[in-house]
Amino acid sequence: MLVNSKKAISGVLIGGLIAGMAIQSTANAAAADKGRKAIEGTVSCGGAYYVRNGGTEIQRSTYVIRNLSDAGTIYLDRVRVYSATGAILFDSDVSGIPASYNGVISAVDNGLDARQTANVRIADLIPQQGRANRPLQTVFDWSADESILTLEATNVRTNTDIDPVTGKIGKQRGRHASACRTTKSKRHW
Fold first, then answer.
1. How many C-beta atoms lie closer than 10 Å to residue 55's C-beta?
2. Residue 106 and residue 97: Cα distance in Å, rounded?
3. Is this structure's pTM higher than 0.85?
4. E strands in the chain
5. pLDDT, tens only, 119-176
6. Is the bond leading into 127 cis (omega within 30 degrees of zero)?
7. What would the DSSP string read from start to end of 118-158?
8. Which of 23, 34, 54, 182 has minimal CB crowding within 10 Å?
């Protein structure tokens, strides 16, 4: 009887481990990886743009936004940056769609064509922030002419040396990427 109990417990543990691994592998997939399509949506990301460690390190975010579809354009309709308190620090409805660092989108061309990727730097949106305003949240509203794979966005945060006297940026100390989250989408039926 004791031997059978050990086998039963082992079976339950192994089954639970396998189930947990399966859940973990699907939980990390982005919405676009799951084939979710929509005609409009909102993607929300974390963010950083501040100096720390006695003025010797700067942390900044770059948002990598991608159209993963083979056909169709995703239009970046609005970009907002919020402080930790929920106050709006940047709104493209006031300032215009920002130009991406790689030149793919701008105020005159807000479309990500099939398979295009744009880099939007927080430094191009707002000035450095103090403690009371961090961490930040950046929100991208988008639309498409037809149902398309949803916009994929990643927040890439870098930690870089900075000279506290001159403000000159030095060597990179670290880098971390985190997936942004689709917080709203509208499917076309």
1. 12
2. 6
3. no
4. 37-47, 49-52, 57-66, 74-82, 88-91, 111-112, 117-121, 136-149, 152-162, 169-179, 181-186
5. 999 999 999 998 889 999 999 999 999 999 999 999 999 999 999 899 899 998 999 9
6. no
7. EEEEGGGTS----GGG-SEEEEEEEEEEEEEEPPEEEEEEE
8. 54
